[in-house]
Amino acid sequence: MKILRVFILIVLTGLVLAPLFAGGKQDSPAPAAPAAPAAAAGTASGPQLSGKLVIYQPSPAGLADKLAAGFEAKTGVKVEQFQGTTGEILARLEAEAANPQADVVILASWADGLGMKSQAKLVSYTPAGSDRMYSNWKDADNTLFGTSASAVGVIYNTKIFPALTADWGDFAAAQYKGQLAIPDPEKSGSCKDFLSGYINNKGEAAGWKVWEGLAANGMTVPGANAAALEAVTTGEEGILIAGVDYNAYSSMAKGEPLNIYYPAGGTVINPRPAMILKTSPDMANAKAFVDYLLSDEAQKLVADAYLLPGRSDIQCTNRANVSDIPVLTTDWNWMMNNSNAISARINAICK
Fold first, then answer.
1. Rounded to two decimals, what is the model's pTM?
2. 130, 140 in Cβ contact below 8 A?
3. Hey, what domains does the chain have and what are their CATH numbers?
């Protein structure tokens, strides 16, 4: 019996060791292929991106910060910003002319964007999503892209005026004397473009008759958009003429005693041009950012900030849409050439 057990043990040992001597080592699972290195940050189909991006853009500040953060998260590119009014941005660009810093500039004035184009400062580019934009919110040479827009209207304090429907020229009436304010058009691109568009549409004589009538009725210039709106919110003034609409909608959502409407005589929808500068130190990043501005994510951020999205397939639920606003027919090239002089004249007659 003992001999049998030994025999069985020898046989089993042979069965285990036979493959090693017959064919070398035992097969083992093939080692896993090394993981592919993580792709460098970039756009879905564009170049791999790195480094930084410098953007100059206007209010609202909350939107500007969210756009910067969204682009950083998607690409890994570090975003540096300067935020200011259109006038402040243009002044900074002029001061830096010998040593350009900005890659992308966004203004609140289409006319000022056309001015930059006329000085051959912009790069032609066709961003992803531009085929879904409002056709007149981009120029034929693909240098200006209105990825968002605003309009101006009449904003009023409902504690002082429970309801208003007056047209622009009606505010020269005695019942509105001493109750009128207007943003400084030399600081507010939206107001500047509206004033030049209004005069272009109505003609010099009829257009200036309206604004001179309002100036004679005590219209003041408290400052840029935010300061002008604050004067009406606090009741220092009752009515803000040519107030930018997204500020009003935002304040109303916070419970401020304000309302806004667009006079039947018409207003100007002002595309806010995003532009790539020829002097951009980081051209690939600049192009990728303009692509991002027209993405679903960025356009939703625009709508959430009470601005009009640049893509016609995205509509707002928190404000009037493009189709709801009575719009003046205007010549933007005429406005580009005349808006600065018109703004200066408004400030002169209101002081």
1. 0.84
2. no
3. 52-149+270-321 (3.40.190.10), 151-268+329-349 (3.40.190.10)
